[in-house]
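Entry 14. Structure prediction run on the chain below.
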Amino acid sequence: MQLYGAARSSAAFRVRIGLNLKGITAKQTAVNLRTGDRHATRYRALNPQGFVPILVDGDATLTQSLAILDYLDETHPKPPFLPAAPAERARVRALALAVACDIHPLNNLRVLTHLETAFGLGEADRLAWYRHWIAEGLSALEAMTGGHPATGAFCHGDAPTMADICLVPQIVNAKRYDCPLDDYPTLTRIFDTCMRLPAFENARPERQPDFA
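Output returned:
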């Protein structure tokens, strides 16, 4: 397998965690999101969106982090990323999508760059934007997990799932931008539990060769 990613990309971070949890080693190819790497014709041939991550597995070229995680779960079932019961699987997916669809897209690099170039927002305004959507999203996630009977050591039960794989990169980014986290005791507890596992810790941006 070959993983095209970037150290600071939340989506690539998710896939690195997933690969680690499954015990899969993939050759990593760094893509610089701040230069022309993702706009190169060769890269666009792999992913017309120009995003990371891309996972190449034999003849399969896969994009979108959650689709890649589903693929890894189907091709390497142990340990599972999703519970067996349909309602429980739906809960885990809802938690994962709350991050991947409702928080992350508003705060990724291309959006922050567009706020600057198209609307003239300075650093302070972009930071306020970032923190606003982090607070909106994490407040909802805290309500979805705190006190819920299915929440255990992790977002769902006592083993990491796709929900934790999505949560951890978002908390790392929140810490990077000094977002207040005191109002999210359940999420920060789960984060700390995850980071005690090598699969999560070794996927951190700081541990990647292209980290800068």
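The first helix runs from residue 10 to 22.
Filed with the rest of this week's runs.
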